[in-house]
What does this fold into?
Amino acid sequence: MFQPVDRQAFVWFAALQVRSGDQLRVEWIDPTGTVQTAADYGTLPTAGELCFTSQLPIAGFAPASQPGNWTVRAIANGAVAFSRNFTIAAAKDDGGPVVTSVTWSGEKAAEIDFKVRGKNFQPGSLVLIAEYKPAGGWRYLANLQPRDMTANRMTVRYAGLPANEYWVIVEGPDGRMSRPSQFVIATDGYKLPIVAGVPWVITQGPYGTFSHWGNSLHAFDIAPRSGSCVVAMKAGIAYTHDLGLQQDHRHHSFGNYITIDHGNGEYSHYAHLATGTFVVKNGQHVEQGQALAIAGNSGYTLGEGGGYHVHVSVTRGLPISSMSIPFEFEDLPDWKRGGGYRTVVSTNESPLCDCRSRRAIVAGGSSAEDQFSGSVSVEQWWNDIVAVARGSKALEVTLTWTGSPSDLDLHLMSPSGRHYASYADTTGYSGDTNPKSFRVPDPEPGLWRISVEGMRGSAPINFGVETSAAKPTGRLRASR
It folds into this structure.
């Protein structure tokens, strides 16, 4: 049995012998039989075993005021795989204080007035404010005397609070205490991490059922629907972590990621990026809206389309695993706490918002020509040669064009005949993205062949190829 003040309810389970195309959905059903919230994992990848965790937030959310018998169930390929029942207890009505809402003006100031609404407030009542700390639970900050009070409303003033999640509890003069009521103070100045005018979908917001609890409590997962370029939410210094990672179901990692230091004690993080697609350098200053990399599925990701999305959060510590803090998108003013699946369009504009070329890393925003360029139609191939020097740490090859990620395919052939492709050796492969890239660590020295294959489309497709290798003198080139 869960109490109304309990933080959350969890369900853990494993799926065995998962086949590509299997569908999974976890539903939390309230006492009326209504699905209160759900985690829709969409299409799963092939795996011998996948472990899942889903949560239902209770304290401060609707379930705290919906006592009774609840059900959590997993639906696999349209059929109920299992269900479990549990109970949320009713809050005791002992005539003591009850808090129904906590609001404030939203203005950042040295001191903030909070409006506390509810019932059974009496002279001599105190307002307790607590701060959420994942390592140690709730930490009380202050016991405040109301500035004014009626039986249903109080006003209290407190020194400006930093962005975080807080609880308010009213203690009556006889010692009876209200159930905690949650409020959030968010930091601002951020915009959605997507190019202006391009629709994406928020697949998981703060307090998300899939995985947004603990240090990731205030994070967002945003998935591409057209375009896949991730841009900076706010200006700062970028720290890049292209670790060459692909999707990994064994380790719960953020995959390849970028952190931006905004110079005010806040850091934004962009996780699960596609390897080989970074268009900013480590230590580079980036503007708001500037291209960073392509959304991918590196690290621990699941779901529709292989799990391609970007996980973004804001912290007060440089490590991406630091505790997230609440933040607001200026171009998403009507987002509600606990909001779910939703299509969004950004206003995050910048002349440096193009992920399709490494031109974005050229100082001052000036252009640089692609190392190679060409054009192919369906079933046509383009080929060229690059020279990889002995001792090279990596061979990076990026293919860019205007169109769908499935229009062109990229192939590499090493000097010894090793074939790198979407259906061959996928070491360092970005996946079905545009740009499409490989980052091969410790490559063989010698001449490598780069090939571009036309896959779809009714007209020739123009493309560019850039590599970390050099064009050999007197290189051979063949196309058909």
Q: What stands out?
A: The CA atoms of residues 135 and 401 lie 47 Å apart. The first strand starts at residue 8 and ends at 18. The chain is about 0% helix and 45% strand. The domain at 98-178 is CATH 2.60.40.10 (Immunoglobulin-like).
